[in-house]
Amino acid sequence: MSQQNTELSRWLIEACETRDLSWAEASRRAGLAQGAISAIVRGMTPGLEICKALAGYFGVPAEDVLRMAGHLAPARGETWPPELVALVREVERLPPPLQRAAIKAWRAVLEGITSARDLG
Q1: Which run of H or E residues covers position 30?
Q2: pLDDT at 39
Q3: What burial class does residue 100 get, using C-beta atoms within 10 Å of its C-beta: 0-12 exposed, 13-18 middle, 19+ buried?
Q4: What pLDDT score was predicted for residue 2?
Q5: What is the rounded CA–CA span in Å between residue 117 and residue 78?
Q6: pTM of the predicted model over 0.90
Q7: Centroid of chain to Cα 112
Q8: Cβ atoms of 85 and 91 closer than 8 Å
Q9: Measured at the alpha carbon of residue 74, what is the angle toward residues 52 and 35, in degrees to the nearest 5?
Q10: Beta strands of the chain (E only): which ranges?
């Protein structure tokens, strides 16, 4: 099977790249079979439990992963702050290696904010 260009496969590829993880290692860390992410990227639609495991490991709401997998309808009425939309557009103009670097930096900042908030 060839690699599929679905929202879920793109998200999984990016999530693994920004964490410097192979698909096999990320699958194992999520508590899944070693080839789970590879199968999803190649076009397999994951079941509910796999979606929940991926959401738990990557720290995103299960609903987001279930939507990307096609188990839930797209959310309605979601709006993004204009500042965030502008940042995303700027990052989209960067070459892929710089996009990954920007995403890693954002994650580090968000983790720092979350840690500080949890300590305070």
Answers
A1: none
A2: 96
A3: middle
A4: 47
A5: 25
A6: no
A7: 19
A8: no
A9: 35
A10: none
Cα–Cα distance measured from residue 70 to residue 67, given in angstroms and rounded to the nearest whole number: 5
Q: What would the pLDDT profile of 18-29 be if each residue is shown by its tens digit?
A: 899 999 999 999
Q: Which of 1, 13, 17, 56 is nearest to 37 (CA)?
A: 13
Give how far the C-alpha of residue 48 lies from the chain's centroid of Cα atoms, to the nearest Å: 16
DSSP 63-88: HHHHHHTTSSPPPSS----HHHHHHH
User: Which residues, including other chains, have CB under 8 Å from residue 24's CB and lie 6 or more apart?
Assistant: 34, 35, 37, 38
CA angle, 108 as apex, 25 and 80 as ends, to 5°? Answer: 100
Alpha-carbon distance 104 to 101, whole Å?
5
Least confident of 32-46, 53-67, 68-82: 68-82
